[in-house]
Amino acid sequence: MMRFAGCCVLLGALTISAVGIASPVQAQSRSNASVEHAERSQGDAKEFKKPVPLGFTKLIVEDMDAMSKFYGALCGFEEEGRGDAQIAGRPVREVYFRSDPPGTGTFTLTKFLDAPRLATEAVILGFIATNIDQFVETAVTAGGIVIETVKLDPAHGVKYAFVKDIEGNLIEVVELL
User: Fold this and answer.
1) HEC states along the chain?
2) Model confidence over 110-132: pLDDT tens digits?
3) What are the chain's domains?
4) What pTM, to 2 d.p., does this model score?
């Protein structure tokens, strides 16, 4: 079973608004847009379709061993296995972490073996921590960098911070108040 060390739960790419912490107007707007989309998709049936759940997150990395150690230290993730595969004909190597509880979203580190990792800011990994200060401290101890210190946002009922992992990927951490 994955050890969380009291720090976090992976939720995939999470932003404060995606946590479900939206104003009533934002929530109603999203609800209306979803219903309108479902109505257009179904014609006269007007049947609401449930969203497809996020099942896993794969982070493209350069140094699999260092990144595995970083996320193990930060979140208590335990490796479940490693394997080689192909994505669109390109060879990859992956590290799979256990999900806890089983059947929930998983986290995988993926390295393309035919070329170096390109530096981009295409993804923000989102975590919910029970102790945000401990999470940020652990990130720094594991080699991460604080991008934005812990801030209080009482309007959304959270504290939040941003850190970068050892390869420069942006992480947003939220503590619910």
Assistant:
1) CCCCCCCCEECCCCCCHHHCCCCHHHHHHHHHHHHHHHHHHHHHHCCCCCCCCCCEEEEECCCHHHHHHHHHHHHCCCEEEEEEEEECCEEEEEEEECCCCCCCCEEEEEEECCCCCCCCCCCEEEEECCCHHHHHHHHHHCCCEEEEEEEEECCCCEEEEEEECCCCCEEEEEEEC
2) 999 999 988 776 788 999 999 99
3) 9-19+54-176 (3.10.180.10)
4) 0.66
